[in-house]
Write a structure and sequence with these properties.
This is Branched-chain amino acid transport system substrate-binding protein. The chain has helices at residues 3-13, 16-22, 50-66, 87-99, 111-124, 151-165, 182-193, 219-226, 239-250, 267-272, 292-305, 311-330, 336-343, and strands spanning 37-43, 70-71, 74-82, 104-107, 128-130, 144-146, 172-177, 205-207, 232-235, 257-260, 280-283, 349-351, 354-358, 364-376, 379-391. The chain has 392 residues and is of the alpha/beta class. α5 (111-124) links the parallel β4 (104-107) and β5. The chain is globular, with a radius of gyration of 21 Å.
Length: 392
């Protein structure tokens, strides 16, 4: 599909936000004459977070496919780098992309990697539009933007909900991996639930933070958390660790489980099957959201990849969308600093998650949704239950 046909199709569907991001035939410089640009995509290419990295790659690539492989009218060369799983490997990925002259960076799954590359990105003065990792400790940044969330928001959204849903005599066991993001989730959850509420007064049980656990990795910690007979479990896992944690938890606990939505996203849900039934999660996206932008995105994603899109894919699609608009605003020969300034001027984004915009800390002000894993025929699905809050 050429660019003009794509614009006609999207305009007919009413996706004004997408059209605005594509530029127009009235631009001062014809987009056909614009020079190629390089964008650096940083994702894990092995290990327990690889599936998340694949979703991020797919989401960004889909936006390019629907926009004639251009951003802001410029043909795009997408360069990829493996973030690994440490600050050191993440920095090596960023350094390699910067040496190749990228106009902007995107991606990043692991919060430890995001924290580790912060200074490198800021000193290079090249914008990074992160599409997953977003620890709350990442403050006072100028060149780092995020199209995902801040981790404490997932805890806050569920804290409000469970505060009202849990019986007066209920008790929540909080189980988290000992990593960079977990304290954010716990803090947000306790702030909204009520820090002194006796229903969440037990200490957090922290587990091994490995992203590739074995079949008994979490058993001892689960036993410890369940010793006080909780009525519900609140947890925070993703990728392969989520699969193993839930399998091991379900061997000993049949009660309600609540978590940020990463617990049941993508290949995790496929792997968990019956073990996932009834789990309720909070997330900034659900594939069954009924808006025009999501219908276009989810339909195109399913057609291209034969799977349901995840929040990771959606946030990466939006990262491409905000880059498209910022590069368009920056003009015919943009440099990284001009693109970074333009990111602050793009306003509202017409996204598959619903309308959102960047706030002062360069993260989204957006809606959060409650989802529940239910059976859809023979397939497990995260079904949208209701809207929880607008945060950010």
């Amino acid at each position: 599909m050429n660019r003009r046909r794509a614009l006609q199709l999207l305009a007919a569907l009413g996706t004004t936000g997408f059209v605005a991001g594509c530029g127009s035939d009235t631009d001062s410089e014809p987009t056909a004459n614009r020079s190629p640009i390089k964008i650096g995509l940083i994702t894990p290419q092995a290990g327990g977070f690889k599936s998340i990295g694949d979703d991020i790659t797919n989401g960004f690539q889909l936006f390019l496919d629907l926009h004639d492989k251009r951003l802001g009218g410029h043909p795009v060369e997408l360069l990829t780098a493996d973030e690994g799983d440490t600050a050191k490997t993440g920095k090596a990925a960023v350094d390699g992309l910067l040496k190749q002259g990228v106009l902007a960076l995107t991606g990043v799954v692991n919060s430890a990697v995001m924290v580790g590359i912060r200074d490198t990105v800021e000193q290079a003065r090249v914008p990074l539009i992160g599409s997953n990792a977003s620890p709350s400790s990442l403050q006072s940044v100028f060149y780092i933007w995020r199209t995902s969330y801040v981790l404490d928001e997932a805890g806050r959204a569920l804290g409000r909900y469970l505060r009202d849903q849990l019986p007066a005599n209920g008790r929540v066991a909080i189980i988290m991996p000992e990593n960079v993001g977990s304290p954010d989730v716990v803090r947000g959850f306790r702030q909204e639930f009520g820090a002194t509420d006796p229903r969440i007064s037990d200490p957090v049980t922290y587990t091994n933070a490995t992203t590739s656990p074995g079949k008994t990795t979490f058993s001892a910690d689960i036993n410890k958390a369940l010793a006080k007979k909780p009525t519900a479990v609140f947890c925070f896992f993703a990728g392969s660790a989520a699969v193993e944690f839930i399998k091991q938890l379900r061997e000993k606990f049949s009660g309600p489980i609540y978590a940020p939505g990463f617990l049941t996203e993508g290949t995790v849900l496929e792997s968990l099957k019956e073990n996932a039934l009834g789990i309720q999660t909070a997330l900034n996206y659900s594939a069954d959201l009924n808006n025009t932008s999501n219908r276009v995105f989810a339909s195109a994603y399913r057609k291209k990849y034969q799977v349901t899109p995840t929040t990771y894919a959606m946030a990466s699609y939006d990262a491409a969308q905000v880059l498209d608009q910022a590069i368009q605003l920056a003009g015919g020969s943009p440099n990284p600093q001009q693109v970074n300034l333009a990111l602050g001027k793009i306003g509202q984004i017409d996204s598959p998650r619903g309308i959102w915009q960047f706030n002062q800390p360069r993260t989204p002000q957006q809606k959060w949704y409650l989802r529940e894993v239910q059976r859809d025929g023979q397939v497990m699905s995260n079904v949208l239950i209701n809207e929880l809050a607008t945060l950010g």
